Amino acid sequence: MRATTNLPVQPGDEHLQGLTKKQRKFTKAIVHDTDSLSEATRMAGYDTLTPSHIGNQNLNKLYVRQAILAEMEKSGVTNEKLTQRLNEGLDATKVQTSPTEPDKTIPDHVARHKYLETALKLKDAYPNDKRTVEHKTANINTYVNLTPQQREKLKEKLGKEIEGL
After folding, report:
1. Distance (Å, whole) CA 154 – CA 28
2. Could you tell me which CATH class the domain 14-74 is placed in?
3. Which of 11-25, 42-56, 92-106, 133-147 has the lowest mean pLDDT?
4. How far is CA 26 from the centre of its chain?
5. Is the terminal CB of the chain with fewer CB neighbours within 10 Å at N or C?
6. 89 touches 112 (CB < 8 A)
7. At residue 142, does pLDDT exceed 60?
8. How far apart are CA 20 and CA 127, in angstroms?
9. Which pTM does this prediction carry?
């Protein structure tokens, strides 16, 4: 059930209309002050015993998410800017230094991976849970000239009979 309020809003904050006082503070905090749900929840004055739970509850409310998006747009965090920053992150580089060679710029795979995860999540193409991959065995045909002693040693190490040895 949605708690509705008729609290007055400041000019320029019309997107916060209908939110409770705490939801308004949460919206401002998550956009301007912190990227932590727990911290934004505390800053908004919610019960500090379950801040992440309350933060998640707020994010699950469409009207709160819409207010957060509107606050981001108001602050200059547009979709175009996010896309530009995301593209920059996907091409992230770092400087590799060496005492014997000149510095060189190389791909920063750790940063690129984080940006890739973010992009996949935004496109709703990132799995919510870990998935296991079934391992299958394959027959590998190799032709190696082994002496009888090498064959016996290999059989001992592997602990089983191998076809063709």
Report:
1. 67
2. mainly alpha
3. 133-147
4. 21
5. N
6. yes
7. no
8. 33
9. 0.55
Mean pLDDT along residues 16-31: 89
Q: Which of 39, 3, 6, 48 is nearest to 23 (CA)?
A: 3
Contact between 47 and 87 (Cβ < 8 Å): no
Per-residue pLDDT at 93 exceeds 90: yes
Are 90 and 112 spatial neighbours (Cβ–Cβ below 8 Å)?
yes
Range(s) for CATH 1.10.10 in the chain?
Answer: 14-74
For 96, list phi and psi in degrees, rounded to 5: -100, 125
What is the arithmetic mean of pLDDT over 76-85?
Answer: 85
User: Rounded CA gap, 7 and 3, in Å?
Assistant: 12
**Token representation of residue 16:** 């916060």
pLDDT at position 107 over 70: yes
Phi, psi for residue 94 in degrees, rounded to 5? -140, 160
